[in-house]
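Now for today's protein:

——
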Amino acid sequence: MERDELLAPIVRRIVGVLTIVSLVALVLFGLWGAPTDEVQGDAQRVMYLHVPSAWLAYLAFFITASASALFLWRRTRADVWDRVAGASAELGVMFTGLALVLGSIWGRPVWGFWWAWDARLVSTALLFFLFLGYCALRRIPSSDPVGAAKRNAIAALIAFVDVPIVHFSVEWWRTLHQKATVFNPQLNPEIHGVMALTLWIGTIAFTLLYVYLLDRRYRLAVLEHGRADVELAHAIAERTGVKAGVT
């Protein structure tokens, strides 16, 4: 299973347009459409970015773990899964970092400080560094591409163990962080009306953005792999030529 791009050109254009439209809608609803929260004030508007960022971190790392598992399974082993895993992990790190920054911006006016050694915050920071390490691991040169890809896949599956810990941390421990607003154990959303609509717009917008960026990062990975093959071929040719000249 080898592909240069994940999305067909027409699909990519549609996703790109929908991404821009939904992001514009998010700005309009997030800044003006949604009412001001009675308790948190305008600081609550940060949640329209923070929550979708956290959701995309979960999604991106789930895709990384799933693609890694598919690569490890001999029947489905293909370069496409390794590239999808790496591309999605990079986006997951980006969205996790964004979630941490936005959470700190929200926490300063609401909690009174930027950071707390809270179970949700610490486990999220750990998730960020675990997958940052995974991305660094993928950059280590190897003379055995398949062996390196297997190693990376195992590392991704180990790192993914922290995702459910992050999600359920607010249920397992007493934390400053509020409990799940939408995907709580009772499946009873605690946000309604225009606020809920704005949150869903943000989630859809960020999901579309993720799909678009994943396709582009995958394409870049294909180009990087092709360049590496060309450079290797040139290096072999040059070394062979030198040896032939000496002989």
User: Anything to note?
Assistant: DSSP finds seven helices and no strands in the chain. The helical segments are 9-33, 47-72, 79-111, 119-138, 145-160, 162-172, 193-246. Residues 193-246 form the longest helix (54 residues).
